[in-house]
Amino acid sequence: MERSEWTELRDRRMAEPGAAEAFEATRIAFELGRSVRELRERRGWSQRRLADQAGMTQSAVARFESGGTVPTIPVLERLARALGAELVVRLAPGADVA
């Protein structure tokens, strides 16, 4: 399949109802997972150690770090606390807000 066909397929899929929102949720989950993985690796911890410290299973940490799950605020709080990090959640005005 040529690149233009992939581009057309992506554009058609993104035009479907709810696709942009699902993509954004996935992007956020991936970025949060990457942040947790980076903090964990800086500490030299395994996924098992983080899971033990956060009261989770190793497989749950692995799914989270890979962006496979959209976390809840309480899960983020447990991970942050286990890593000695501060969880900061904020809403910022967009560019189109006057």
TrEMBL record:
Pfam family, one: HTH_31
Protein name: HTH cro/C1-type domain-containing protein
Database matches in PROSITE patterns: HTH_CROC1 (PS50943)
Source superkingdom: Bacteria
Keyword DNA-binding attributed: yes
Gene Ontology terms for molecular function: DNA binding; DNA-binding transcription factor activity
Residue stretches making up the HTH cro/C1-type domain: 36-90
Any GO CC annotation of this UniProt entry: cytosol
Keywords attached to this entry: DNA-binding
